[in-house]
Write a structure and sequence with these properties.
Elements (H helix, E strand, L loop, with lengths): L3 E2 L15 H5 L2 H6 L4 E8 L2 E8 L7 E7 L7 H12 L3 E5 L10 H10 L2 H18 L3 E10 L1 H9 L6 E7 L17 E8 L1 H4 L2 H10 L4 E10 L2 H4 L9 H18 L3
Parallel strand pairs: 1-9, 4-5, 4-6, 6-7, 7-8, 8-9
Antiparallel strand pairs: 2-3, 3-5
Length: 264
């Protein structure tokens, strides 16, 4: 499929302390001031119980659910604030804590724990969360999609091959799939969002395009000029260390994403 380039200019719970405090607390003001209802829920996943954070839109009809896969940092305030933004856009957002029951001294500890997660456990937790969304949330209209960021972006792309109930997958700067068997069962379109200055990830796009095209699947990657990896976080206006190029990328990505969400 064609590799799109943006035509515009540019486009808890994981305890994080000490030097990483800003990562944990980022987005808390939005959460504290949101008019939308957010809550923590318990979800049974096999013999385990995981936590998930849910935010509901203010609307007078049932809504689609978007399953959110967090970054390698875990369920931070930032990703919870992004769930609130999704709810503001009219969908129910639910982010499972794939590190439930674990605590860390710093973000590097969370990275190591994420890397140690088995693919089987991640899939089981996402399956449990998807089932919860479709059967335990009365205001869900039966439509399910998935999104993910960084590590979670790659997970979201991969999970599209595992769950035929998904109506769409939105992968934000996550690596593309690299084997035919990993795309053969994908039943929904995959929309991807990449930063121009992120070749570690972008180098995986051509193979992903090749595989998806050969399998007759829809894959639409867009690269945002001037943006780096993680631009949805680093481009957040309330971020004390906001990067202007990433802010422009974030604004354009949100504009695209909202149009896609309205199609669910």
């Amino acid at each position: 499929m064609k590799r799109f380039i943006s035509i515009l200019a540019l486009t808890s719970i994981v305890p994080v302390i000490h030097a990483q405090e800003v990562i944990k607390d980022f987005g808390k003001d939005r959460l504290n001031n949101s008019p939308r209802h957010g809550e923590w829920v318990d979800i049974k996943s096999g013999q385990r119980t995981i936590k998930a954070f849910v935010v509901y839109p203010e609307r007078n009809e049932k809504a689609p659910v978007v399953l959110v896969v967090h970054e390698i940092f875990g369920v931070t305030d930032w990703v919870r604030s992004l769930c609130d933004e999704l709810a503001e856009a009219g969908v129910i957002a639910i982010v499972p804590d794939l590190l439930s029951g674990q605590t860390f001294e710093d973000v590097d500890g969370a990275r190591k724990a994420i890397s140690a997660l088995s693919k089987e456990q991640v899939k089981a937790d996402l399956d449990a969360t998807a089932d919860y969304a479709l059967t335990k949330i009365p205001s869900c209209n039966g439509t399910l999609a998935i999104c993910g960021f960084c590590w979670g972006g790659g997970v979201a792309f991969a999970y599209a091959n595992e769950n035929p109930k998904l109506r769409a997958a939105y992968s934000f700067y996550g690596t593309a799939l690299d084997e035919a068997s990993k795309v053969s069962n994908i039943a929904c379109p995959v929309y991807a969002f990449y930063g121009e200055n992120d070749e570690r990830v972008n180098a995986t796009i051509p193979k992903g395009e090749e595989l998806m095209k050969a399998a007759g699947k829809k894959y639409e990657p867009v690269i945002y000029k001037g943006a780096g990896h993680g631009f949805m976080r680093s481009g957040e206006p309330s971020n004390p260390a906001v990067r202007e190029a990433d802010k422009k990328a974030r604004d354009e990505a949100w504009a695209r994403w909202k149009k896609l969400l309205a199609e669910l």
